[in-house]
Amino acid sequence: MTNLPKALRDRLQAEYGLRTLELVRKQGARDTTQKFLWRLADQSLIESVLIPANPALYGEASDRHTLCVSTQVGCAYGCKFCASGLEGLKRNLGVEEIVEQVLAVERWNESEKDPAAAGAVAAIGSGERRLITNIVIMGMGEPLANYDNLLKALRILNAPWGGGIGARKITISTSGLAPQIRKLADDPLQFRLAISLHGATDETRNKIMPVNRKYPLGELISACEYYQRHKGRMITFEYILIAGVNDDLREAQPLALLARRLNAKVNLIPYNHVEGLPWERPPEEKLEAFLAALEKEGTNTTLRREKGHDVDAACGQLRLRTERQLAGSAPHSGALS
Ligand code: SAH
Ligand code: SF4
C-alpha cells in the first residue's frame, strides 16, 4: 500500500502480522487426529493438533473439534520424557502466532472442502460457526512461561468480537509454575486448568521434571488450592504412565490423596514413545491395574485408550524430526514433500 506513508508501513510491518503460518506438513486423515507443522516468518517450526470429538477423553459427545495449540518454539523446562524440551527454548510465540493457529487450521479445512474458497472464510469475529469449538493449550512449550502473550491471545479467541470460544472450553496445561498459577487464579476469565503432574511424590517428580526442584509439590498444590478457591473450578491432573518410572501401584495412593485434597480429576495417559529417548509405555495390564487402584480409592479417573500410536504421536516430535531432516539435507531439496 504505497499510498500509506513509509514510516507507517514500516511500523505496521514491524508490529503486526497477517497469515504468519505456512503449512509445511500435515499428518493424519480426516476424522482422525491431524497434526499440522507450521513454519513461522523466522523459519521456526511449531505444531498444532486437531482432535475430533472424543467422548472417552473429554467427556461430551458432539461435532466438536479441539485444537491443541503451541505457545513457544521449543521449551526451557526440559522434562526428561518430552520431545518439545529436547533442544531447549528458542523463543516465545507472539500473540498473533498463537491466535493464527486456530485460523490457519480453519482456513485449511475450508480449502479442503472447496479450494476456491480458500482464504475467504473463517475470519475471526465473522460470527460464523467455527470448526474449532474447544482449545487445549497442550502443544509445544510451557504456556505459563509466555503468560502475557498467551492471555492476550486467549482473550482474543474468547471475546464475542473475536473467536467467540467460551473460556470454559479453553484448557491451559502447565508443568507446574506455581506463581503463574496464582496469577491466573486472579484473572477474571474462567479457563480450565490442567496440571502435568506425572508423579505424586517429590521423589518421582524430581526424577523426570526439573521444574519440581524450583516449585516442589507442596508449593504447586497450594497454588492449585488457591486457583480452586478463586475459581471454584475442578482441576485436572494429567498423569502420563511411563514404564518403570511412575507406574508402580504404590504411586496410586499418594496420587489419590492429592486428587482428593483438590477434588481433582485424574487423566491417565499412556506414554507416547519419543525417538531417541529410552522411555516406554507400560503394558496394557499395568495401565488397567493403575486405573483400578485409583478407582478403588474413589478417584475420578479416565484412562486414554487410543489405538495404534504412530511414531510422531508425541507433541514436538514432528518438528524435531523435520528439523533434523532439514539439517541433513540441502535447502529446498524437496525432502519434506
Ligand atoms: N508445557 C505444558 C503444556 C505442553 S505439554 C505442560 O507440560 O503441561 C502437554 C502435555 O503432554 C503434558 O502433560 C506433557 O507432560 C505431555 N507429554 C509430553 N511428552 C509426552 C509423551 N511423549 N507422551 C505423552 N504425553 C506427553
Ligand atoms: Fe516443556 Fe511441557 Fe514438554 Fe515439560 S512437558 S518439556 S514443560 S512442553
Quickly list its features.
single chain; alpha/beta; ten-stranded mixed β-sheet; 12 strands; 34% helix; 18% strand; globular; disordered C terminus; binds S-adenosyl-L-homocysteine; binds iron/sulfur cluster
Would you mind describing this structure in some detail?
This protein is of the alpha/beta class and 337 residues long. The chain has helices at residues 6-15, 55-58, 95-113, 147-158, 178-185, 202-208, 211-214, 217-231, 252-262, 284-296, 317-327, and strands at 22-27, 34-39, 45-52, 65-68, 72-74, 89-92, 134-137, 170-174, 192-196, 236-241, 265-270, 301-303. The strands form two sheets. The protein has a ten-stranded mixed β-sheet, sandwiched between helices. The longest helix is centred in the N-terminal third of the chain and has 19 residues, at 95-113. It starts with 5 loop residues before the first helix and ends in a 10-residue tail after the last helix. Mean pLDDT is 88; it is low at 55-59 and 330-337. Bound molecules: S-adenosyl-L-homocysteine and iron/sulfur cluster (SF4). The site of iron/sulfur cluster has 11 residues, from loops.
